[in-house]
Amino acid sequence: MKTTNQKTMKTMKNFKLATIALLVAGMSLTSCKSDNESGGNEVNEGSTAKLVTEILQDKTTNATNFTTSSLESNLNLDFGFTFNYPVTLIYNNDSQTVISTSAQLLTVVESMTAAQYVKDIQFPFSVSTPTGRGLETINTDSDFSNLINQVDTDGDGEPNYTDTDDDGDGVADTDEDTNNDGDATNDDTDGDGTPDYQDTDDDNDGVATADEDIDGNGDATNDDTDGDGIPNYQDTDDDGDGVDTANEDYDQNGNPSDNDSDGDGTPDYLDTDSDNDGTDDGNDSDANGDGVDDADENGGGDTDGGGDTDGGGDTDGGGDTDGGGDTDGGGDTDGGGDTDGGRGK
Fold first, then answer.
1. pTM confidence score
2. pLDDT tens digit string along 261-270?
3. What average pLDDT is seen over the chain?
4. Residue 106 lies in a domain
5. Using CA atoms, how far apart are residues 287 and 265, in angstroms rounded to an integer?
6. What was the pLDDT predicted at 283?
7. Residue (of 160, 145, 47, 60) closest to 103 by Cα position
8. Is 226 a domain residue?
9. Is residue 108 part of a domain?
């Protein structure tokens, strides 16, 4: 049988345990409440705005002349949007700045430091997208993240802003910065409006950039068939024979790679003597040896609308090549038989 003292000690022990339990519970509630209350002021280290501005800052650091145009191009091509200003950026110290122009955004990006940087953006805001959808409203960070992660030029599942080869052509984006100014958005070899790092046929010669890796080592930058210092994927005349690669597509199917006139295993656009007749293509009026003048095959034909398709000058089949009326070289230009300017025979 337990004594009164033992019962008292047990009661005090239970009271002590209960008190500790209440204190722990109270601390947990206080902690949860504090987390919830401070949520709006916490630095969101994983915010999409922070990610975008940091990537842009890296680009400004690496470029020799990063302009507002460069910034807009990078936003558009790498992230799939441009801001519909104004937007409000939030710094890590909770101060805010209203951005009304691309120039102001560039200033903010260039001036960020480890001590002061953009941590977030005020929602909602609107953007323009290059997909033809017009203005879109971004309401949450999740919306913002989804927006930039859907931009994937080569469809390899990796968004452009993390993809080192956006167009999947085998040439790294950094290597497509031909002018070496640190900004790949202003390099456009064929002038088609699409920068090389997102263009699958950089020189628009009909041969995909990936297929101009002739030695098959995965690097198209070291393939230069004619040794002119211009790699094939940027060279409009890969073999330097005087005939543009696009014009060596003799079957005109849009792919010069499948034309091999002499059957030697080297496609014509890489073969300086496509028909193997001993005359270089640049000096051969019928480079593929099919009996049809190359000028006619490549759309030369009648170039002035006069009817002459072979360069002889005869436009009506009558034999007159100089417009004088003489069709047989005898000198008679009017059919009267006079060849010397007299009154006839």
1. 0.67
2. 999 999 999 9
3. 79
4. yes
5. 16
6. 74
7. 60
8. no
9. yes
Domain count along the chain: 1
- How far apart are alpha carbons 207 and 86 in whole angstroms? 44
Find out whether 112 and 55 touch, Cβ atoms under 8 Å: no
Please give the residue range of the domain that contains residue 114. 48-151
List pLDDT tens digits, range 21-48. Answer: 333 333 333 333 333 333 333 444 569 9
Q: What is the mean pLDDT of residues 152-157?
A: 96
pLDDT exceeds 90 at position 89: yes
Compute φ and ψ for 137, nearest 5 degrees.
Answer: -95, 130
In a domain, 109, yes or no: yes
CA of 199: how far to CAs of 137, 229, 234, in Å? 29, 21, 11
